[in-house]
Amino acid sequence: MFRSLLIAGAALSALACSPALAQQPSFRLCTGSDAGNYFKAGHLLKKVATSIKLEVVPTQGSLDNLDKVTKGECDGAFVQSDALLVYSSRNAQALSAIERAGVLYQEHAHLLCNRSAGVDRVTDLTNKNTVAVGPDGSGARTTWDAFVLADKKRYAPVQVDARSGVRALSAVADGSQVQCLLWVGALGSSYLKNDAQGQGDRIVLAGTDDWDMGKVAKDARGKEVYGYSEIPSGTYPRIQPGGTIYGTKAVKTITVDALFVTNIAWIDANASAYDRVLRGFAAAKPAIAELVTPK
Predict the structure, then answer these.
(1) Handedness of CA 129, 134, 136, 142 (dihedral sign)
(2) What angle do CA 103, 228, 248 make, to 5 degrees?
(3) 224: buried, middle or exposed (CB in 10 Å: 19+, 13-18, 0-12)?
(4) Max alpha carbon distance in the chain (Å)?
């Protein structure tokens, strides 16, 4: 009996010392709302990055993510590229602690306005308009803050409101307190397809293609933060402007990259583990692309 216990104990000791079960460093990944694409993309990464202990952390959004990464509360994060512009304006030195690891996908700035507001493009907004941009740190608020940084004369006079989600849609549909809302995300989201189109008799998409933004909104490397694209006709039939003869028109938009960033101190302390994270990210890219492909 005693001999059997010794053998069992030796086996357990050998198992505990096995390289396969050696303690792996954890990687805390800040994402966003647990209903959003960043959170879902984080779980897609976790699914394939099985050689590292990856924890998906829900957060308030891009600026919250950057705060947590620079403070060491998260080891990596998904953020909008314009969040780096806004964050650096508040804390330029903090970005030296962050490394860009890759691009997830492209996001569009969607501007939805009350049909009676007379706003066809973002450049039509004046100090008589109020735009719902969500709470501080959210994706839409970050993009709006970047707009103001890039062109204070045009955008600083516009009033902003912290409402978001379905509450913001209801306010825009009413139109008395809030005339437009800004939402930043990939095409084909359920928020646009279902919630926004449900208010299609009162709400319409407006263009966000302010061409001056591309010239003045640049990151620390001097690279333009925004690109330009469009929401194809028929993507959201009930909230896109009508075509000249029939159907709907494409809506021109500003686009922003969704980025994967990491804490350099964590990388320096866990070089081989970081290689595994990057391999997992590369392996997850097809599934993440599928996540944000309009259905």
Answers:
(1) negative
(2) 115
(3) middle
(4) 90
DSSP 50: T
Q: How far apart are CA 89 and CA 82, in angstroms?
A: 11
First to last CA, the chain: 64
**Among residues 66, 63, 51, 53, which one has the least CA distance to residue 27?**
53
Closest CA relative to residue 236, chosen from 181, 195, 292, 175: 195
Tens digits of per-residue pLDDT, 54-108?
Answer: 999 999 889 999 999 999 999 999 999 999 888 888 887 888 899 999 999 999 9
Contact of 75 with 273, CB cutoff 8 Å: no
Torsion of CA 238, 244, 247, 252, to 10 degrees: -60
Which tokens go with 97?
């602690």
C-alpha span between 158 and 183 (Å, rounded): 16
Residue count (the chain): 295
Q: How far is CA 145 from CA 9, 91, 151, in A?
A: 61, 15, 10
Give the containing element (helix H, strand E) for 5: helix 2-16
- DSSP letter, residue 192: I
Residue recorded with tokens 């984080």: 42
Residues 38, 97: Cα–Cα separation, whole Å: 22
The residues near 273 (Cβ < 8 Å, ≥ 6 apart) are 24, 25, 27, 52
The neighbouring-strand residues paired with 203 are 114
Cα 207 to Cα 257: distance, rounded to the nearest angstrom? 18
Containing 276, the helix (H) or strand (E) segment is: helix 271-291
Q: What is the pLDDT of residue 22?
A: 52
CB 30 within 8 A of CB 68: yes
The Cα 134–Cα 142 span in angstroms is 9
Q: What is the pTM of this model?
A: 0.84
| Of 85, 79, 97, the residue nearest 225 (C-alpha) | 85
